[in-house]
Amino acid sequence: MNLDSIFNPKSVAIIGASTEVGSVGNDIVKNLTTQGYTGKVFPVNPKATKLYGLKCYPDVLSIPEKVDLAIIAVPASIVTTVMHEVAKKKVKGAIVITAGFKEAGQPERELELSEICRKNNIALIGPNCLGVINPAIKLNASFAATMPPAGGVAFLSQSGALCTAVIDYAQKLEIGFSKFVSVGNKALVDETDLIEYLANDPETKVIALYVEQLKDAGKIIHAVRKLIHGPNPKPVIAIKSGKTLAGASASASHTGALAGNDAAYEALFKQAGIIRAYSTNELFDYLRVFTHNQLPVGNRVAIITNAGGPGVLATDEVIDSGLSLAQITAASQKKLTAVLPAWANFHNPFDILGDAKAKRYEATLKIILADKQVDSVLVILTPQTMTEIETTAKAIINCKKKTKKPIVVNFMGGRLVTEAVRTMRSDQISTLQFPEQAARSLAMLTKFAGQQKQKSTKFNFTDINKKAVTKIFTDAQNRGQKALPEALALPVLAAYKFPLPKYYIVQNETEAEAAVKKINGRVALKIVSPDILHKSDIGGIALNVEPHEVKQKFHTLIKTVHKNAPTADLKGILVMEMLHVPSSAEFILGASKDPGLGAAVMVGLGGIFVEIFKDVSFGLLPLTKENAAQMVADLKANEIICGARGQKHLDGKSLVESIGRLAQLLTDFPQIKEIDINPLVILQEGQGVKALDARIILE
Amino acid sequence: MNLDSIFNPKSVAIIGASTEVGSVGNDIVKNLTTQGYTGKVFPVNPKATKLYGLKCYPDVLSIPEKVDLAIIAVPASIVTTVMHEVAKKKVKGAIVITAGFKEAGQPERELELSEICRKNNIALIGPNCLGVINPAIKLNASFAATMPPAGGVAFLSQSGALCTAVIDYAQKLEIGFSKFVSVGNKALVDETDLIEYLANDPETKVIALYVEQLKDAGKIIHAVRKLIHGPNPKPVIAIKSGKTLAGASASASHTGALAGNDAAYEALFKQAGIIRAYSTNELFDYLRVFTHNQLPVGNRVAIITNAGGPGVLATDEVIDSGLSLAQITAASQKKLTAVLPAWANFHNPFDILGDAKAKRYEATLKIILADKQVDSVLVILTPQTMTEIETTAKAIINCKKKTKKPIVVNFMGGRLVTEAVRTMRSDQISTLQFPEQAARSLAMLTKFAGQQKQKSTKFNFTDINKKAVTKIFTDAQNRGQKALPEALALPVLAAYKFPLPKYYIVQNETEAEAAVKKINGRVALKIVSPDILHKSDIGGIALNVEPHEVKQKFHTLIKTVHKNAPTADLKGILVMEMLHVPSSAEFILGASKDPGLGAAVMVGLGGIFVEIFKDVSFGLLPLTKENAAQMVADLKANEIICGARGQKHLDGKSLVESIGRLAQLLTDFPQIKEIDINPLVILQEGQGVKALDARIILE
After folding, report:
1. Where are the coiled-coil regions (chains A, B) (predicted)?
2. pLDDT of B255
3. Quick one: B440 and B508 in the same domain?
4. Interior CA angle at B659 toward B653 and B664, to 5°?
5. Is the entire prediction scored with pTM above 0.90?
6. Which of A406, A607, B44, B243 would staple B15 via disulfide (CB 3.0–4.6 Å)?
7. What residue numbers bound the domain in which A400 lies?
């Protein structure tokens, strides 16, 4: 979508321009006329003649010149009427500030609005938003009072009120913005469209999102991965609220969107390569570190400090965040002896002692930065009596100019360090308040560097029988059947080449005995009925049945089910081979739908432990081989697959393939609402997996 | 320990007072003479006559008047000599600033120093420290440049350099201090002594610790619990560094103390009732909230905000931190309709909308504070164009004065909110930078209120046979045996009345068959040898042996062990009853020693899962019934005990009792270095537990 008319309009009409000072419709005109925007501004207000020295027009169609962008702040009830006029005027960008749409229980009104824009090729931001700011051209098309300084951060926010806080706080931190977008209800333009646009925006270096709900995981993953792996990669950092149920419903009450499952978002961010900030504090930390540094080539951090305690705190966080402490070369060690006192710590973290002056900091930093075994540096300073705070800051600035390695700085203190911190900030040095924050931010920068290297290999199954599944689903839909129990779900899995044990559906004892003969071993008997989804609850399963017991057990099973579910329509008994596999583990594989993101695949350790340890991981579509492998690697139960405690290795590769087959099934049949393959038994390495039971729910 | 001579000296001698400006020995004299201290100051320097207008003395004994406190900053090699003179002078408090003791590989020097002080009843702070500050009497007995403002926080720090950063940052936050102590190597006075002293210090409201290593869990738990449950309870907040191995060794290199196991510290803080901050950022947040608020009576929080997004972020954190969203009464709901616009959110979080002015904030806050279903309030403000920032701050201050309920405030922004934040801070309002921080801090305040209510019930076992264990351990020690395998460990458990299966130690096949007859069922055969601690590794175990197989299996077992461990001294075969318990679970119970804290009891789910899920919890001595119950409750595997997924309830009560019995054993026999009871089988409710195997290692 071309959003130039939104961000770089040559002319702007404000429909709903108000003469009432302090009103939204007045603020926007003020912002457009007093903050340096050089384009044309046309206030539309049928009752006024002049506003901030500009002629007012009764409606947008009366404006004699071309209008690129229309900002709409009229009452909700007339927004669509106005939008028709905007369309007629051939305006190509619109921002609807007005609230009173989906978030107020008026989804139809919102749909009508978006349809007008879609048909007329109008890029629509909002409704229910604060507006848009482009500091580079001094365009404040919002009712936020302050124009943030220009810089490299594009900020997209699903909360309008948060924007004003962010602008104000960012100014204090000297974080500049390339674009500022309050996305509102996202009736048309959403984060994905904006990310695609910002990918080619030369002013944007980092994209930051405040998100309550996102739509269409596939589109987001595609857009972000394209950006990250493109010629001009930019990090995308997101904070997602509504993690808890209470938070999600609070969020729904103010944007009208369901927040969905946090684990699905976790998967989305991982697959797309979006850096997740878990708090606003972290978000700002990451913005500072990402805007000021190039990416490190590896994860080896050197810590230089004049204080032991903060050095230890930073070390803890370095390790906890998955980085490693750099081991410097013998040559560097030797060089350090020339610049440090004998009782300093020559091992990382480098404690250069409380009496370290600027020269000692600079000499150490130079040696460490030059060391080929160091990928990034964290400098800590506490204000001791003899500490040369400002001079040390300048030394760091000088060193930073001569290196490509990231440097993150923590001058720990208050008033004493304020001036030095300000100097460093305005000279492109990332300074953080506390050592832990500095370490964590550096870890995220490193993580992003790793993201860039991640490959995307598609699964490619040539052995699947899509037609067979289409028929099963069509037949079920024709019958009005949504829940497909085992007897219908297993053929679906078979068509997608999930390995299954031998099984037969039989109608009587004689057929059962014939089936057992073919299986030639112990069997499981399970009731087949479209009315019974949870067979074990009503005694519809008999396990470990010996061949000679089949007749009697068949009889008992039918009797029990008749008693416990007298109205159920019995379609027979499923006779299934029992597996005899000493080294194996029961996993669970499944999928459900997130209201915004779409189908989410889940894998985890099965049995009682899935509920107790909740050791599951999620993946979204489209799912690459790397994603599926990562899902398995993320499980603690992966240790079982890798042969925990001297046990045999299990067939993890086949588990990964099964995840891929399930993802393929979900891609091919979006009508699947839920699917459970439980248990999926993972056999020894090289022996594959077996799906023992399954159920499917269609939309 | 009476530390009055340290904190409230009428006269101070500085031994090692230096004429060299910028040196530590000079800074201390300057701090004592220029920052308002009104006591007598005696610089000791044999080479100088005057310093900062004061007469210098050649040594402490030459001072003609009584000296309460001696600050020592002479070279490490002569510190003990000086301390002898200090003792002779009958000085009762000493601060040794000098480094070069345990942390520099000189533990003997440190021991000698502490011995002199102990014998002469001198309270010793240090060595290797920054000193002590008591702002109330303007005593800056340290080389920190700045005197922090007086206030309610006592700060004890194991890192000297951290102190200067804390003082500087705290000033910015308007946090005041009652005492400031750099504890250094803690050769004599440690955190426990200081906590006991500060318990009775009227100026101290909150005690904060920066800790790398602590000693003697029992002493700490006793001191802190006494403080919390005493007539004048004060919260103790700690940040512990050296969580990771790399962090721990970095910490060791600068204080010479081993950091120990972080899980043991987690247990210590929980049992003692110490609030743990996981970062310096959190520490400061908690200090702000604890110093300004009374304790809430419950965990129901109301959030008032003019911005949806931050309200959602706060809600997430409220729930994640274990608090709940208050549901206000119908009466309050009705009152709210009179003061809020119709489209505000009348449910918690209360979104009073972006155009909320001070009056709306105040009216809402009053209604919410008066609601009996609200225990604490979180107020969020973002600076919208129409927001009355300063007036709202004043409204909050007014409301706070009329309520006992905690109020935590987040004015989210930068320059626009600076003045209002400053006003609130100086008027005893806790303001935090971000909504999540505000919510988390409130959660900690609530958690502390809960801590105060926690009971301490001692285990009281009257059925244990201490003598029998004494004999087993004495015999082993006489033999020079440190590792006690099953055959020696089980009798120890039997003496402490752990339920055991029937077992017999036999020497030959005939005795084995006789044992099986008495057991009357399947048995396990296990090799008995002082040389073999891990029996299964060398094939020394046979399980599920049928009575008729005993002879043959006995023979095979002996043969296998002879082959795999030809030199092992075989003392026979242990014949043990096999349990037949369908509903049961294998747990592991054990203990090891933390280098600083002492014996740590561990409980967890046994088998392969202990390693994969690391679902274990720890407890320290002395261990109350409540602590043991909490250890079990903290396990995810507790769900198995509570009957996960329709299974039978297991005997959790007996597991708790077993933890108590193990704690008693460890208390009675401190020579136990390690003990493992694995597996400890938990039977169905009412049927107890069974210890199937054990081993003990003595010091």
Report:
1. none
2. 47
3. no
4. 125
5. yes
6. B44
7. 294-451
